[in-house]
Design a protein that fits this description.
With 212 residues, this protein is α/β, with parallel strands linked by helices. It has a single domain, classed as Rossmann fold, CATH 3.40.50.1240. Helix content is 29%, strand content 16%. The chain contains 4 helices and 6 strands; from the N terminus they run E-H-E-H-E-H-E-H-E-E. It has a 6-stranded mixed sheet with strand order 3-2-4-1-5-6, sandwiched between helices. The relative contact order is 0.20.
Length: 212
């Protein structure tokens, strides 16, 4: 299986003056241009895919839409690849009227077993890693030998690395991905040895200087 994980285009949550509230924001104009550039470039490198998944958050949905159009495929929307803090500890997304207002006053990796939002039902970093890991294991089982796109968030890609590399809760390295950066993992049937290969990370060939 070839797994391509793509971060969404620039969203209002990525802007320096973002207030820290209203988590489910759409793409900015730059983000829409980034998504269009990605959809024009990726099929040249990857002519066909078997499945497209996307986070249910607006910025991922809007990034996935041009890809679905160019590949002429439906999108399977998936709550488990939402960004950290946007689901409860049972992996269910917050409803609009219960979404916590603020993140906790510490960085999640500093206290991986503490709620990341100022709400007792919030997921912890380890809950987040678990939901990303369960999703990855399920798509491995469901899509053997296929090419799978997952349009998601920087944190999801970061914790896909933690799951695939079997990193413990106390992290020492941040894995950074640019908006619409593409990360390529391959799952290989090699009993008795490593089954994952990292082919590339954060490919942004499609982003001209004015789109970065």
């Amino acid at each position: 299986m070839h797994l391509y994980m793509i971060r969404h285009g620039q969203s209002y949550v990525n802007l320096p003056d973002w207030s820290g509230t209203n988590w489910d924001q759409p793409l900015t104009e730059l983000g829409r241009r980034q998504a269009a550039a990605l959809a024009a470039w990726l099929p040249q490198r990857l002519p066909s895919v078997d499945t497209i998944y996307a986070s249910t958050m607006a910025r991922a949905r809007e990034t996935a839409a041009p890809l679905a159009e160019v590949y002429n495929m439906p999108i399977s929307f998936e709550d488990r690849v939402r960004e950290i803090g946007n689901n409860r500890y049972d992996h269910v997304p917050w409803s609009a009227d219960e979404q916590p207002g603020r993140f906790a006053d510490f960085w999640a990796s500093e206290r991986p077993f503490a709620p990341v939002m100022e709400e007792p039902k919030s997921e912890t970093l380890m809950h987040f890693r678990a939901r990303v890991g369960v999703f990855i294991e399920e798509i491995v089982a469901a899509h053997r030998g296929e090419r799978v796109l997952v349009v998601c968030h920087g944190g999801v890609i970061e914790f896909a690395f933690d799951h695939i590399f079997n990193i413990g809760p106390w992290r020492r390295c941040e894995v950074w991905t640019h908006n619409t950066g593409v990360t390529h993992f391959e799952y290989v049937e090699h009993p008795g040895r490593e089954v994952w290969r990292l082919r590339s990370h954060d490919r942004v060939d499609h982003l001209t200087p004015d789109l970065r």
